[in-house]
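Cross-check.
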Amino acid sequence: MLARLKDTVWRTAFARWPPLHDTREGYTLLLPVPADLPVFLRLALANAAAQDRDGRVETLVIPDVPSAAFTLAYEEASARLDAGPLRLVELRLAARAIQRLAGNQAGSNHFLQVHAGTAAATTTHVLLHDADLFIEDPGFMARHYRRCADEGLACLGVSPAWDDWLREHGFGHVVATWELMMDTRWAREFAPWQHRNHRARLDGEEHAFDLTLYPQALTAPERCALHDATASLEHFNYVLGIYRKFQHARGAPFEDNGFQLLLIRLLSDALESAPGYVPTVAELARGIEDGRAPVVYASEAAHQYPKFRRKLERVLAGPLFGEDARRTIEGALAPFKRAFA
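Predicted model, tokenized:
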């Protein structure tokens, strides 16, 4: 009953979109970022600044929690990085209230940010950028938009949706949300709550759908497509979700087998940015042998570490990091190399 009541609140609060009058041809880049991890604001803007701006009308920065500290970080980062026309979009009071009701969960926060950005966009298309993704090809975003517009697609993704249930039930056309280019008019054909991660009935079964996946499943397969660009992308996956779960653990030993918390700390230290609630590298390394440390590593970590290192090395070799940052990160990794390499 409580779950149904919460679902009713979401449906009521996000029943319709605000009016959209004149749309401009082109796309709006949406940057949902965690307000308490400013390093990802800096990296997201750096990614945007490195991209060819053809087709991009505006970039919207959407923090999950509005604050004076984040506004200052936004002003400093936007002055340092030339990413083109920028606008700060904050969650409205009603959205903030629902955010608290939902327990500040990463999935709910992401929906609220994507909704706020899509509602504020004035272009024919929007691009959802993940804060933990790095792009090597400077022409990726421009080509991504051009294909979506030229082929009249509703959604153009870079990876199939992770959900095997969709493929098993004939919805294999659904694409993942990360680096998803959407036709704004298509998004508005559905109520905002339908894009939210929620449970719904489809093909005679009830299923939990991730962000945007339910509307895509209801869309003609030929209107959703894949852009094979993964060779130029490096995505760490689940970084912010793991970070929020670590916060909710409230000091109990937390397994970081994918090294997402370590990544946050490494990037923050190397770029001289506030690391949020992530312990120091020394504290993170203590968990290699001490099962009572705030962050610990199970046997799975030994299998995940080589993959993590390959991703990190590729990112560090790119243009976003200088030699000093690379040396800082390499030095900090020494105990993890000894334990897991």
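The chain has two domains: 2-232, 238-340. The chain has a mean pLDDT of 94. Passed to J.P. for a second look.
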